[in-house]
Amino acid sequence: MKSVKTLFLALALGAMAMSCSGDKKKGIDYNEFKTQVQLTPDQTKSFDEITKKYQDLQDQNFQAAKAQGGNMDRVALGIKNEELRAQQSLEMAKVLDAPQMERFNQFVDENSRKRPRYDNALLERIKTEAQLSDDEFKVVNAANDAFEKAFNDAHDVYHGNNDLAKEYWEKFDAQRKAAIQKALTPEHYTKFQEIVKDVQFKGRK
After folding, report:
1. Which of 10, 28, 95, 164 sits 20 to 30 Å CA-CA off 107?
2. DSSP state, 70?
3. Is the dihedral angle over the CA atoms 143, 86, 54, 32 positive or is it negative?
4. Tens digits of per-residue pLDDT, 63-121?
5. Shortest CA distance to 175 belongs to which of 1, 4, 2?
6. In the prediction, which pLDDT does 205 show?
7. How far out from the chain centre does Cα 14 lie?
8. How far is it, in rounded angstroms, from Cα 167 to Cα 151?
9. Distance CA 47, CA 81 (A)
10. In this structure, are residues 183 and 45 in contact, taking their beta carbons and an 8 Å threshold?
11. CA-CA distances (angstroms) from residue 128 to 131, 173, 188, 201?
12. Position 28 pLDDT exceeds 70
């Protein structure tokens, strides 16, 4: 696991921490969704109540994270927001019909901020399709977590600049892959590369 510890150190050193007082959170514009579907008055009322409830909760989490001072723990904040979106989807499913829910989940997926990491579904593909051993998979997870932390820690440096964010993303992604390559057999790493080949930096709209 020495290579993983080295990776954490390298990523931590690479992520410059700077303050950014102009960090204002932008949420999803749910009014846009309402122009795309036909809701009844009762559905509209419930839709507005649910989305406001979860936007308020998300804002509370953001303000609490900011209030901690120093570097905001954006990894923890991202996890909390993922959980809120899942809870919101469950609650919204009681209001919208199946086709509306499919469009709602697609809309939220396209417009919400994702955690900058291999998600759980992709990690499961890597583990099974590349036939990784438990030790190999631990390295993939550790490198993936280190990538997410490093990219989030550098947020205040590239904030508002997609080109710079892309540079940081690609730098940390290269370090993530280098750590993984050291731990995997050549055959497993080749399969890993094939699985993640389409994972690219996605700037904010």
Report:
1. 164
2. S
3. positive
4. 888 887 767 778 888 888 889 999 999 999 999 999 999 999 999 988 888 788 898 88
5. 4
6. 58
7. 20
8. 10
9. 19
10. no
11. 5, 21, 11, 24
12. yes
Map the chain to HEC letters.
Answer: CHHHHHHHHHHHHHCCCCCCCCCCCCCCCHHHHHCCCCCCHHHHHHHHHHHHHHHHHHHHHHHHHHHCCCCCCHHHHHHHHHHHHHHHHHHHCCCCCHHHHHHHHHHHHHHCCCCCCCCHHHHHHHHHHCCCCHHHHHHHHHHHHHHHHHHHHCHHHHCCCHHHHHHHHHHHHHHHHHHHHHHCCHHHHHHHHHHHCCCCCCCCC
* Token duo for residue 2: 């020495």
Predicted TM-score of the model (pTM) = 0.67
Q: Which two tokens stand for residue 104?
A: 């709602």
- Give the amino acid at 173: D
> Which two structure tokens, joined as six digits, stand for 128?
């099974």
Domain boundaries, the chain: 31-111, 120-196
d(CA 98, CA 159): 37
Percent of the chain's residues with pLDDT above 90? 60
